[in-house]
Amino acid sequence: MPAETKNNSISLSQLVEGNPVATIIIDAQHRVTHWNRACAVLTGVAASDMIGRNEQWRAFYNEARPIMADLIVDQAGETAIANFYSGKCRPSELIDGAWEAEDFFPAFGKAGCWLFFTAAPLHNADGELVGAIETLQDITQRRLAEEALRRSEERYRQLSQTDALTGLFNSRHLQERLVEELARARRYGRPLSILVADCDDFKAINDRFGHLEGDKVLQSLAGVISTCLRLTDAAFRYGGEEFVLILPEADTRAAMTLAERLCGCFAESPIKTETGETVKCTVSIGVAELQPDEDIAGLIRRADEACYGAKRAGKNRAQLAATR
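Predicted structure:
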């Protein structure tokens, strides 16, 4: 071997071995020529078990398949690369012909780890492809931090939409959902109904038993509402002892059926107070189906008027809203 070539080879080996980033180099026949110490520490596989062989997959996978560097040597196209790293890879913005990806490797560490890896082609002086280099970085802590932030943001979003006492959605979220559901009903020409439910004689319950027992009544009603809902429905605490239910794909008949069921279930759900007394409470419900060219305010107003009509008619019942 010429002295210049030998010196260059030694320099490359020293450069790769001294690199703190896990690095793999393979030749045009997919044989491992370099497997630095950082790579051995990351994968738990010694360089002596890899160099000169073309079984680099064993350090990462349970069965034979190409690693990213192998795909670069094979000059695989975007479709072929996506077959192995679907949704996890992208062309490098820094290096022509290189690809990068993120993936989870369950066998690494105590609970697996996330790796960011980049593979790039290696060419000789004549521009011929002679191999590929792949670097790997442990990004587990970053991914864990991102997931923790995502969960925190989701939790905050849920709290911002939820009524603390009943666990149902709050009135602010009601407006958002009504806009969405009304637009959907208009777009597809589908029915949409709402219920306005108001706990009967709630002030008298608060006056007699106190606000804590009154809160129990509201929580009980919320629980009954939740059990009566279909998967597509949504329930909201509108304010005080008043609740609103959004029923997508429900016409007048379906909405009345659900409202009457809710009335019956709540009337049969007595609440025990701290002193052992039994509180029996009922609910009055107004039912309204969205009419052509009706806006949100008009829909709620008709359901609300029907609710008070149910109270005037004797309470513990559902009443259908008048059409415009």
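Summary: The chain is about 40% helix and 25% strand.
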